[in-house]
Predict the 3D structure of the following.
Amino acid sequence: MSRFLRLVELCIPLDHRFSSSLAAISERRVVLVGVTEEGITGWGEAAPYPAYTPETVKDVWEALTARGAGVLGGPCEGLPATAAAAVEQALADLAARRAGIPLWSHLGGTGRPSMACAAIGLEESPDLTVVRVGRMIEAGARQVKIKIEPGRDVDRLRAVREQFPGLTVAADANGSYRLDDRSPAELDGLGLAYLEQPLPAADLEGHAGLRRHLATPICLDEPVTSAEAVERIIELGAADLVSLKPGVLGPAATVTAIEMLSSAGVGVKIGGLVETSVGRAHALALASRPSVSYTDLVPPSWLLAADPCPQAWEVVDGLLFPLDERGVEVRTGDRLVSDYVERSADFAG
């Protein structure tokens, strides 16, 4: 049975420049991966993130075009993580469509919605942070995760707390603190839902030590590159909550990690990579699994100037719903999207 591989590289401007201690971005470059069999196409998305993933979009494109449809015939070993995840996503989406079931059902989810949680980048001042949070609340978010770094942390979080006292607020340092910094302790009195990645990714022992001294739950993200890495986090007691990114791990490893964390009594969060609706569909499908307690997901239209998928993700009472059995529709030829297509390629299996 023949399968066809389609690759589409997109470069889409952001509606609002997004900064963290890792990088500042004003556009998203991604590669959409489509796998077609008997007229049915499943989609995945490779969305490398500057200074977060070791690979770039150029690396992803070169790796996938070098193998062509050969990537569909077996393990994706040797591919960059986001490229392998995208191929696996496309195959999972294809399997769900062929079975006539929603992607969330194929991945063991329940179809329940996720609370819309907006990631807020590093803004220039506390006042601008409050303004940005306010805009996300007006759009429908009920939770926010605010990027912080030394010197741009307590004042911004306190300002948001004072302006929106009932809002669920978390903070994400992207590994910018060191164990002897005072700031993590100063954050402890702000009633945060969690503090994500305060220390560098390699310092699991340091995170385990922070857990013993802080009341705020510790969430880890950057070290989570495989199920084996999750096992190490569990063994060291390094986190109260672990953020899993399906766009890095792929569906199978994400499901395995969810089960491992649930069995160990560690909380689970599903995170995104500022993706289009293709990557967002996979993240929301996995976020509907019963043991997932947090996400940092919002509709892509809140972030991107265009989206290759015409469905309008609606936030209802702060909730974001996974897609039904029709799945995500991709239209890269539409006028509003075609200007952002950098290149495309097709391969026959």
